[in-house]
Amino acid sequence: MAQLPKGEIAPSDGLLPLVFNSSDNSFHAYVHIPYCLTRCGYCDFNTYTATELGDTSQSEYFQLVIKEIDFAKDVLEKSGSGPRKLSSVFFGGGTPTLLPAEDLISIFKHLVDVFGIEAGSEVTTEANPDSVDEEYLQALKEAGFTRVSFGMQSAVPEVLKVLERTHKPENVALNVSRAKTVGLETSVDLIYGTPGESLADWRRSLEAAIEMNTDHISAYSLIVEPGTKLARQIKAGEIESPDEALHADMYELAEELLTEAGFSNYEVSNWAKSPTLQSRHNVSYWESKDWWGFGPGAHSHVGGVRWWNVKHPAAYSERILSGVSPALERELVDQENRNIEKVMLEARLARGMDVNWLKENGFGEAKVLSELIADELVDGKALIGGRLVLTLKGRLLADLVVRRLLGF
C-alpha cells in the first residue's frame, strides 16, 4: 500500500499557519470511505477489508466523519480562514457505497449544515456496480447528490480477472441506466494496459462504455505500484508485465472513439460530453483550490498548508474520539512551489496555460517553447494566441513536457 509523504509533525490542535489568504479560493470537501469487500491486486489505495479492520466498526464510521467535520469548522475559524460555502463534495474510497445510503447522506447533510453549499454544486460518490440499486440511487438523488462515478475498469472478463475486480460487468450498464433514470449524472472509470490486454480488448471496453450513454469517461493507464499483489505476481513470473508499447496505441484509440461519440477531452485522462459534465471536483484539484479531506489517509490543502491524516481507521478513530487532530504530518507550500505545482497540474488541462504567466514566472523560455512546438508536443497556433496547449502527442508525454517547462 502506498506510503504517505514525509512532512513535519502536525499539531494535535490542527491549527493552520496559513501561508496565504485563500478566502477568495473555492472550498471543497473530499470524504474517504476506506472499506472494500476484497482488495484488488493492482490497488494501493488506503482501503481495508473486514479482516484488516480489527475492532473498528464500519457501521459507526459516519459518526467519526461527522466529528471531524465539526473539528474542521473549529480549526478553520481559529486559523483565520474565513467561512466559505462548499463548491463540491466527493465521496471516494475504497467503496463508499458499501455504507448504507443513509450514512453517506448523514455525512453530506452535516457538511451542508456546518459549511453551507453553493447553489448548483456538484456532489459525487464513487460506486461499485454491484453495491447499489435503484432505491439506493434514488435516496442519494433526493438528498442532493448530483453525480455517481462507477468503477467499470473493463468490459472483458479476462481483464477483470487479472485486476481481481469481482463486479458483474452487466451491472455497470444497468446501474448507469438506473442513475440516469433517477436524474443523476454518470461517469465510468476505465483502466488500460492490464497485463495480457489486447488492443481489441480495450476497444471492446471503450465501445461498451460509450454504449451506456454515460456523461463522462475516465481512462487511466495501469501503473503497477510497488507493494501490491500484482507487482509481486509480475516479479514472480506468475503474470506477464504490461506491454507498455501498447499504452500509446490504447490512448490514441480512446481519443478516437470517444471523440467520435461526442466526448471532449478536458484533462489528459478525462472526457466529458459537455463542459457542464466535467468533474468539477477533480478540476478543483488541478486548479489548486482549497479542500478538506475527511477520513483516514485523506489529504487536505488550505491556504498553502497541506496535510494528511493517519492511515488506519483504528488510529483515525482513536484520534477523533480523543478530540485531537487526525492529521499525521503536514507541509507548507511557499510561492515558488505553488508555481511549480501550478505548471504540473494545469498543463494537463485541455484549455492549457497562459503563456504570459509562464514567462513571468520563469517557465516560458523561448528556446524551450520553440523546441516543444518543433517536437509536436504543444499546439503552435494556440501558443501564438497566448495559450500553451498540449497536442495529442503532448498528452501522451505530459510528464516530459512539464519537466522541460520546469527545467528539470
What does this structure look like?
- With 408 residues, this protein is an alpha/beta fold.
- The protein folds into two domains: 8-286, tm_1862 like domain (pyruvate-formate lyase- activating enzyme), CATH 3.80.30; 353-408, no CATH class.
- The protein is built from 16 helices and 15 strands.
- The radius of gyration is 21 Å and the shape is globular.
- The relative contact order is 0.14.
How would you describe this structure in keywords?
408 residues; alpha/beta; pyruvate-formate lyase- activating enzyme; nine-stranded mixed sheet; four-stranded antiparallel sheet; 16 helices; 40% helix; globular
Question: What topology emerges from the helices and strands here?
Answer:
Elements: E1 8-9, E2 27-33, H1 61-79, E3 86-93, H2 101-115, E4 117-127, H3 134-143, E5 147-153, H4 157-163, H5 170-182, E6 185-192, H6 199-211, E7 216-221, H7 229-235, H8 245-260, E8 264-267, E9 270-272, H9 280-286, E10 290-294, E11 299-302, E12 305-309, H10 313-322, E13 327-332, H11 335-346, E14 353-354, H12 355-360, H13 366-374, H14 380-384, E15 387-388, H15 392-396, H16 398-406
Parallel strand pairs: 2-3, 2-10, 3-4, 4-5, 5-6, 6-7
Antiparallel strand pairs: 1-13, 7-9, 8-9, 11-12, 12-13, 14-15
